[in-house]
Amino acid sequence: MKLFWTIAVLGMIALPLNAASVDEVAEEAVGGWKLEFTTPDGEYRTPIVLVGRQHDEFVAWYVAGDEPEAFSKVKLDGEELHMTIRPKEFGGDVKATLVAHLSGTNACAGTVKYAENGGDSGEFKFKGKRIDLSEFDEKEVWKIGFVAPDGEQRRAQVTVLAAGEKLYAWYSSDRYELPAKKMTMTGDQAVMSLTVTTNEGDVVDVSFRGTISGDRVRGNATWSAGGESGSFPFRGERDS
Question: Distance between CA atoms of 122 and 103, rounded to whole angstroms?
Answer without folding.
Answer: 22
